Amino acid sequence: MNILIIDGQGGGLGRQLVTAVKEKYSEAYILAVGTNSAATNAMLKAGADQAATGENSVAVAARRADVIMGPIGIVIADSMLGEITPRMALAVGQSAAKRILIPVNFCDNIVVGVTETSMVKNVQNAVDLLGKILG
Fold first, then answer.
1. Total domain count for the chain?
2. Averaged over 108-121, what is the pLDDT?
């Protein structure tokens, strides 16, 4: 199972996702793609099997992934303070992969109906959902 984790800015959420997925599903292959080198390095240090940076890396990796995980902004062009390009959002949105998106009410994108929970709890919920997908 190829899991793509995408994050930007400092890579804090991506780092948490990589750590949590590796702890629960050590056999899962994780490709981490950061929108910048800081995010990529954070996810690589957390234990990603492979990592890359930038727009084209997101586009290529999204085509090969079975599951894509990351903040909801990865499907919204110009989100995350402009780090998500329209091409990145399109690649994630058009991917045949299952998407597990973590709600982050930031950068003018507010998800109605989502309860206020900690990022740690959101990451755990995402990993639990990944388990259902993995079977």
1. 1
2. 80
